[in-house]
Every structure is written in structure tokens, then in C-alpha cells.
Amino acid sequence: MAILKLHGGKQATCTRRVATVLHELQVPFELIEVDVANGAHKSPEYLKIQPFGQIPYIDDDGFLLYETRAICRYIAAKYPEYGLIPTEPKANALFEQAASVELTNFDPSASKAGLQLWIRKMGYPFPTDDKIIADNLETLEKKLDAYEAILSKQRYLAGETITLADIFHLPYGVFVTYAGSESDSVMNRASRPNVARWYKQLISRPSWLAYLDGVTTTTAY
Amino acid sequence: MVLKFYASQFVAAGNGIVALALAEKQVAFEFVPIDMAAKEHKTEEYMAMNPFAQVPAINDDGFAMYESRAICRYLDERFAGQGATLVPKGMKGRAVVEQAISVESMSFAPPLSKVVMELVFKVHRGLAPDQALADEGLKEISDKLDVYEVILAKHKYLAGDDFTLADLVHYAYAPMLGENGVDIMTAKERPNVARWWNELMSRPTWVKLKAEGMKSTV
């Protein structure tokens, strides 16, 4: 059986999200870099596989799949022993609730502010906008008040154990902290001790630490 | 205890897709209207059910949950074997549905919300729409629909030849476009998208829901 191929970008945000999950599940993979700078993702050959011209996609022994969260869900379902997607019906529903919270209550503002903050940090030659960053961080602060309420009752977003719903908060959950300092940022405020506790647990996971300098082919764990 | 469905009166957004999923799964439920104008979603009682103070939410005999997409998935499992199957059970079939659901969230919904805000919400409230922003959104939707055209040339619905949750999530906002004179979903240049969208708009469960509105089945 062929090694799983992750087609994406070494530093690309969504490629990093998939790599983090592959690492959590100890799945060997080969990173195949897509030359986005030169428009490789818009070529007719690429569009046949990923018709939206986006990265990443995976090739799992011939099975092609795109959309980060769909990829992560597929891999997590292959290795249910890790419990990243609980299977018991009510636990599964609470996982879906938390996954939807990330999608609708966290990602919109975190990705907008996070992407801009990441561009600035990496020094990429793209325009950024102080107002977009500020407005989205303000929205995020309010959403995290609800997170504080949830996380004051349980360790992780779907219950006592970590699931994909928590891990989906990477990497944007880290990028939004670039607007603050290590001791005080939107994810790490004294006023939201439970969010801070949960955030620190996320960023100390080996799967996140493994690719701090970018995603690399990982054949052994 | 019969399932309680907490939602606003409007057959749209998360309220609309859960109402449709309840109909698709033939679930008996009690509709509990949440009057957002009267800030009923901000009461301590409601926020105990949904700390984000959003609608809808359900309470299935003591099991409470929120987030419309999650609720739809739960209903599909909970009432498996009755009504439509919204998500197939096989690993790869399920992955392809998740792929299409993710496309809606990440690529379709954001530009759609721009257009709905300008051309539906603002116009309803007598506010002047920002036509430049609306046009920007329409161009983005059009670009995404060009890809949908390629996908829908291969099969009847977004994830294959059966109606799934991937199609259902599109009922949240896109119906408002046609209702407000924006015909992008049925544009002649994209015959497959038009075919698919007309199928969705004429689906009997949807037609009945729109005609009768939000109401308890019991």
C-alpha cells in the first residue's frame, strides 16, 4: 500500500492543519509541494483533481480527497482508536456541535485576523489592513467569552477528551496571538483562565510542535 | 418526551435547514419559537442551552444541543432507518459528502452572506445596499458556481446521485436570492447548476415547509 501523499504547501495554513492531524494519528505521509507561487494549483491537470484550485488535497492509495476538514475527518475515522471523533451517538453529536462551533463561531474571525497577522509575521509581500485585524479580533474576543463558559465545565470543547474539534483551532488559534504577547493575547487572557488553559494544552501537543518550521514528509513516529 | 425544536419563525439560515432535516427524517417535534427581537435568545435559560446565544437548538428527551449542521448530523443518526439518509455510512461515501459540505461552508457561504446582507437584508430594512460589495460577492459566487457546474455534470447532486446533507446545507441562504430577484442560481450559462437548484427548490419537503412555515408536528 502506498504512503499517503499530502499535496500542499510547507507553510500553508490548511496544509499545516492536515499535517497536525496526520501526526496526531501517527499516519506516515509524504508532503508533495504544490508550486502555488507559479500557479501550479490553477493548471488544468490540478483542477481535474481539485476543481476549486486550492490546496491541500490527499492521495490515499488512489483515493483523492480535498477540503481540510473532510480530509481530517476521513483520516480520524480510519483510526477510531485515537478517539478524535467519538463514535457513541451522543458523544458524536457533542463532537459535531463543537466542530460546528469552530467552523461558524471561531474560524470566520480567527482566519481573517490570523491570516493577516501571519502574513505580517512571515514578511510576505501582501497588503494587510489594521481595521480588518482589529474588527475580527474584537468579534473573536466576544466568541471566546462563550468558550470560557463551555471550558469552565469540561476540559475540551466536546467533553473531557481532546477531539478534532479542538485541533481544528490550529493554526489560526496560534496566528491570532501574534497580535499580543506570550503572556497576554486573545487566546491567553487572565480574564479567561479556562480558554488559556485549553489553548496552552493545544500548543504543547507534539503534533503542533513537530511542524513549527513548516510541514515535512514524515515516514516514522 | 417529544423532541423540542427551539428556533425563530423564519424558514432560513440554521433554523431553515434543521426544520428541513426534521421533515426529511420524518421526526415528530414541538416547535418552541424564540423571539429574537424580544431578546429571548439572550435569556439565562436559553444561554444555558446555547452559550453563543444563537438559534436553533434542540432538546431530545433531555439531550440538548445546538449548531444546525451538528443537529442535522445527529438527527440523521438518531432517526436512521426513517426518512431520507442524509449522510451515507461507508467511509469513502461519507468523506465525499463531507468534502461537499466543507465546500459550502468555506467557499460558497462567505460570498453568499455578502450578497444576502446587501441585496436582501438591507433592502428589506429600507437601507441603501452597497452595490460594489454586492457585485464583489456575486462575482465570487459565480466563480464558485462555475466549479459546481463541473461537479454537477458528473452526478445529480453534489456528492453523487442521491440527495445528501451536502445539498441540504445550501437551503440556508441561497433560496433568498431567487426570492429577491437575484437569479444567479438558475443562470442559463450553467445548465447543471440550474437543474440541481430547480430540483432543490421543488423538493416536496421544502415546498411544504415554505408553504406551512415553522410549526409543531404534534
- What letter string, H or E per element, gives the SSE order of chain B? EHEHEEHHHHHHH
Strand content of chain A: 5-15%
Q: Segments of chain A where pLDDT lies below 50 for 5+ residues?
A: none
Instruction: Name the overall outline of chain B.
Output: globular
Order of helices and strands of chain A: EHEHEEHHHHHHH
Multimeric state of these chains? Answer: heterodimer
Please summarize the sheet with the most strands of chain A.
4 strands, mixed
Low-confidence stretches of chain B: none
Gyration radius of chain B, rounded: 18 Å
Strand order of the largest sheet of chain B: 2-1-3-4
- Structural class given helices, strands, pairing of chain A? alpha+beta
Please outline the major beta sheet of chain B.
4 strands, mixed
**First-last Cα distance of chain B:** 11 Å
| Class by alpha and beta content of chain B | alpha+beta
Helix content of chain B: 40-55%
Give average pLDDT of chain A, whole number: 95
Radius of gyration of chain A: 17 Å
Span of the ends, CA to CA of chain A: 18 Å
Average pLDDT metric of chain B: 95
Beta-strand proportion of chain B: 5-15%
Topology:
The complex is a heterodimer of chains A (about 220) and B (about 220).
Chain A (H helix, E strand, L loop, with lengths): L3 E5 L4 H12 L4 E5 L10 H6 L7 E4 L2 E4 L1 H11 L10 H34 L7 H22 L12 H4 L4 H4 L17 H11 L2 H4 L12
Helix pairs in contact in A: 1-3, 4-5, 5-8
Chain B lengths: L2 E5 L5 H12 L4 E5 L10 H6 L7 E4 L2 E4 L1 H11 L12 H34 L6 H22 L12 H4 L6 H5 L11 H11 L2 H9 L6
Parallel strand pairs in B: 1-2
Antiparallel strand pairs in B: 1-3, 3-4
EC number (chain A): 2.5.1.18
GO molecular function (chain A): glutathione binding; glutathione transferase activity
Family (chain A): Belongs to the GST superfamily.
